[in-house]
Specification:
homodimer; about 130 residues; Arc Repressor Mutant, subunit A; 6 helices; DNA-binding
DNA sequence: TCCTCATATACTACAACGGGAATATACGTG
DNA sequence: CACGTATATTCCCGTTGTAGTATATGAGGA
């Protein structure tokens, strides 16, 4: 049992990231995840187990279902690691500021899901430029 | 050749993260990395190759040495991914603010709106649950 | 040119991870 | 209590990634 997995090994798996992104909108049951992401049920359960034991999600029992939702702590670890490299792209400070603006809103407890497009987020850029690669 | 590796698979490897952290302080030659991180030379070279082809680092030739240094683009991708989860740890907004404060010294002209915004510390719950796990 | 340092690559073995199929467990209902 | 649904777990197997050792490439100096 790899209970000491680093945050990064957890989120390295594409399906797990998909699950996390899905849960970012609202909590979901295993079956809903399975259906929306087109994964088999055992696969979903296995990834959820990894995510749960890693502290990325937690589950609530709802009859025969389990509702999964995000837990924030581990994401902060990623953010903390990233911090040491922030000075390298300090060009986008205002993007961070915009973040603050968006963040101090209310925290919905019910799946009200007021999906507003907010403002355009920072383009991830992807500067596909010079190859290097020897 | 896995040229289409996701950012996350790259940083999932502990040694690679160590190399990146080391390069965050300043550029280094392969031998310096090898010595400081106590890794064998082929291991360092192999990881550097992965990092280089993934766009995390670039190398300069210095006589027989190669000096490696960070490239910022890919880190931004991680940050962009993380963005969708930021609202979950809004409790620590002021930590982000501190970030801004530290950063705008080294950043080009940005008239910079006043960073002091009324914060409300909306505790998004996420408090005490731990149990679960089956 | 030959030698040495610095780095890159090739090859191999091994361990971990993820998926699929089958099965087990838990819950609610008739 | 038997049954169906929802989820978890087990077993097996193919793939992938990493470390290690040995070797290749390339540049500088005698």
């Amino acid at each position: 049992m790899r209970s000491v997995e680093s945050v990064f090994e957890i989120i390295a798996e594409p399906n797990r990231r998909a699950i996390l992104s899905l849960l970012a909108s609202s909590q979901q049951s295993v079956g809903e995840i399975e259906h929306q992401l087109r994964m088999t049920q055992p696969t979903v359960s296995k990834h959820l187990r990894v995510l749960r034991e890693a502290g990325f999600v937690e589950s609530m029992v709802d009859a025969q279902r389990r509702l999964y939702r995000l837990k924030p702590e581990r994401f902060q670890e990623v953010d903390a690691w990233l911090a040491q490299f922030r000075r390298f792209w300090s060009a986008h400070v205002d993007a961070l500021e915009r973040h603050l603006d968006r963040m101090d809103g209310s925290t919905p407890r019910k799946p009200a899901s007021t999906k507003k497009k907010a403002r355009k987020t920072t383009r991830p850029n992807h500067g596909r430029d010079k190859g290097e690669t020897k």
